[in-house]
C-alpha cells in the first residue's frame, strides 16, 4: 500500500454533501487514514462570479498504481456531474491527486507531485493540517513551510471534522 494525498473541492450544488460522498467513495479505492479540516476558499482563477469552494485533503492508503487512481478520481468527478468544458470553472466536485508516495511522474496524462500543489493555499492549508512535515518529493519543502511562504489569504477554516 502507498500513501496518496488527494485534494477535494466543490463549489456547485451542495459542496459539503459532495465532499462527504467523495470521501465515502474513496474508501472503495483503499483505506482513508487521514482527513484534514474543511476550508472555505475564495475561487482562484477561472470565470468571475463563482461561489466559494469547500476544500479538504485526504490521505489514502492504496494499492492502485497512480494512473489507475487518477482514472478512478476522474470517474468519481464525472459521477458527481463534473463536465470538463472550461479550465478552472465552477464544479460540483474536483479531485486532484497531489502526491503518491515519493513518486515523481511527468507524462502527458499524469504529473506527480501535482504541479501547482505547493503554490496554492487552498491545497496547502488542508495538507498542512493533515501532514505538516510532509515533504515535496522534488524540492524537499515541507507542506507547513510552503503554506507560510504562500500565505493563507482567501481561506477560512470551518471545521476540523466534517
Description:
- It is a single chain.
- The protein has a single domain (2-159), classed as 2-Layer Sandwich (Alpha-Beta Plaits).
- The two termini are 25 Å apart.
- The relative contact order is 0.23.
- The model has no long low-confidence stretch (mean pLDDT 94).
- The chain has helices at residues 15-26, 66-79, 121-130, 143-150; strands spanning 2-10, 31-35, 38-41, 53-62, 94-100, 105-107, 110-112, 155-159.
- Strand 6 and strand 7 (110-112) form a beta hairpin.
- 27% of the residues lie in helices and 28% in strands.
- The protein is α+β, with helices and mostly antiparallel strands and 162 residues long.
- Strands 1, 2, 3, 4, 5 and 8 form a 6-stranded antiparallel β-sheet that branches.
> Tally the helices: what do you get?
4
Q: Return the CATH topology.
A: Alpha-Beta Plaits
Number of strands: 8
How many domains would you count in the coordinates?
A: 1
DSSP strand content? 25-35%
- Radius of gyration equals 14 Å
Low-confidence stretches: none
Order of helices and strands: EHEEEHEEEHHE
Indicate the percent of residues in helices: 25-40%
What is the CATH superfamily?
A: 7,8-Dihydro-6-hydroxymethylpterin-pyrophosphokinase HPPK
- The CATH architecture comes to 2-Layer Sandwich
* Helix-strand category: alpha+beta
Distance between the termini: 25 Å
Q: Write down the overall geometry.
A: globular
